[in-house]
Amino acid sequence: MSFWFVLSMIGLILVVPVHFLSVEHSRLDRKYGEAKGFKIGAGLGMISGWGFFLFLIGLWISPQDRFLIEISDINVIGVPLFHLLLAIGFLLPGAWLGIKGVTEMGLKTAETHRAERVISTGVYSRIRHPQYLGSILAHIGASFLFSAYYAILTTPLVVLINYILCWKEEQELIREFGEEYQHYRDNVPMFVPRLGSKLD
Predict the structure, then answer these.
(1) What's the pLDDT score for residue 109?
(2) Which one of 69, 87, 95, 145 has the fewest CB atoms closer than 10 angstroms to its CB?
(3) Alpha carbon distance 44, 17 (integer Å)
(4) For the chain, what are the domain ranges?
(5) How far apart, in whole angstroms, are the C-alpha atoms of residue 43 and residue 80?
(6) Residue 54: closest CA among 117, 129, 142
(7) What per-residue string of b and e applies to 107-140 under the rule 16 or more CB within 10 Å gives b?
(8) Whether 139 contacts 155, CB under 8 Å
């Protein structure tokens, strides 16, 4: 296992407490005042968001053993065809969920992790955390694209980290929005949509 891979994995784990601090809006506001608390939270949110993204990329592109699922001998731009098809199957919905989540939530909220209201329409009527689900799918897809053996093995860790981040955000959202968010959480799944039903 290469130094860069280990560094990326450690970085991904270290992003978690930074993210936790970034969403503790009431605590930051109480400690530093509303204006300064907002700036600190937004800064920590940017660090944790971009850090998470960059460390994920590090997992995919770090020097590591490669794996191969042999279905055919066809390669497309150096990528085994079956790996490419699997990668596209995960990357496209992952990218769509990430982009859709940001556009429906708003870039400011996505960057600062400070929601102004409970969003329960569009993709958020199907799942509570489209961006985090998108990052899980993107991780799997990119691991296949790069045939990155150690990266694909870290998938349970990536899922766990995404779950922990979502759990923490939800604790803060319940604190901020009370029963409105609790009702939303009780009726909309975290990651896996219920087929044929959505929140009205």
Answers:
(1) 77
(2) 69
(3) 10
(4) 3-187
(5) 41
(6) 142
(7) eebbebbbbeebbbeebbbbbbbbbbbbbbbbbb
(8) yes
Amino acid at 75: N
Q: Which helix (H) or strand (E) holds 75?
A: strand 75-76
- Residue-wise pLDDT tens digits, 153-162: 999 999 999 9
pTM above 0.70, yes or no: yes
* Type of residue at 131: Q
Span 167-198, pLDDT tens digits: 999 999 999 999 999 999 999 999 988 776 56
Q: Which tokens belong to 157? A: 């860790």
Radius of gyration (Cα) for the chain, nearest Å?
Answer: 18
Assign domain 3-187 to its CATH architecture.
Up-down Bundle (1.20)
Distance between alpha carbon 18 and the CA centroid of its chain, in Å? Answer: 15
